[in-house]
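Students often ask why inverse folding is considered easier than folding. One informal answer: many sequences map to the same fold, so there is more than one right answer. In these notes we will look at a single instance of the problem. The structure comes first.
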């Protein structure tokens, strides 16, 4: 079975606290986008879970999110693991804040539930997803959602209107652990970004929504390449621009595909550039 695992961007990202276990609590609006990894799953063959990936620096053992998702699935269902091959063809950039590993894990959970006819309900799949990583439950559901807790508590919100994103991933990356370590040097977010975005989605049009883009990490990491890309996107006509996740990819919002593709041509010297559109939750399944 071949499946697509779709990337995400954060329309907003507030960091609201830190739990006793060290994990940070968030209030964020996430959005699925039409950039994907392709994953091929083949049951059978040699015993055990085998992972291959088109990027050789990505682990293929239990350090891989897709591997762990398969492990949790087999443990939960009690199905005998008689062999499973997972081949991941990466297109989503790494260390970008776009959920590449999380969406691979979510796609594997959905696919295995279908392949083995396990019929696990969405609530159970979300429980397994949370064990793998904080963004995996959102990637499992997709669409436009407000996410709280460590990111695992999902609340559907008004969907983003039709538009286009120009995403630019600069050469510099940022690990999530490093980003949070830097963030801890500053006070937590004032709780304004996400509530404003939810209201804009409900009542405002695309220009208002674009004005409400916000990311706490962008304020604290202060990456030069992020600043330059954001400036270039706005100069190319973006209605708004912001870094996604813990970085380092930056995206701009455009109302037409033509405008987005014209802008993309102006950013090719700043990193890898992608033109995407937002996806509804039903489009990822």
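Output (designed amino acids):
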């Amino acid at each position: 079975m071949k499946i697509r695992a779709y990337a995400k961007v954060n329309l907003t990202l507030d960091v609201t606290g830190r739990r006793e276990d060290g994990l940070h609590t968030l209030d964020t609006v996430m959005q699925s986008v039409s950039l994907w990894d392709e994953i091929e799953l083949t049951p059978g063959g040699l015993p055990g879970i085998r992972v291959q990936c088109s990027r050789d620096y990505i682990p293929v053992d239990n350090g891989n999110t897709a591997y762990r998702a398969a492990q949790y699935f087999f443990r939960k269902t009690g199905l005998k693991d008689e062999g499973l091959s997972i081949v991941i063809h990466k297109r989503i950039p790494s260390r970008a804040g776009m959920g590449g590993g999380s969406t691979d894990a979510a796609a594997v959970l959905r696919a295995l539930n279908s392949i083995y006819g396990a019929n696990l309900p969405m609530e159970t799949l979300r429980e397994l997803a949370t064990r793998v990583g904080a963004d995996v439950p959102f990637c499992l559901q997709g669409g436009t959602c407000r996410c709280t807790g460590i990111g695992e508590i999902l609340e559907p919100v008004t969907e983003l209107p039709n538009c286009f994103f120009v995403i630019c991933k600069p050469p510099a990356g940022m690990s999530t652990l490093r980003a949070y370590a830097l963030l801890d040097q500053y006070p937590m977010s004032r709780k304004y970004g996400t509530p404003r975005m939810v209201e804009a989605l409900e009542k405002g049009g695309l220009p208002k929504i674009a004005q409400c883009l916000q990311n706490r990490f962008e304020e604290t990491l202060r990456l030069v390449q992020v600043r330059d890309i954001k400036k270039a996107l706005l100069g190319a006509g973006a209605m708004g621009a912001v870094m996604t996740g813990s970085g380092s990819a930056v995206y701009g919002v455009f109302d037409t595909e033509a405008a987005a593709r014209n802008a993309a041509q102006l950013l090719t010297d700043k990193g890898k550039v992608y033109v995407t559109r937002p996806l509804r939750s039903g489009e990822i399944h």
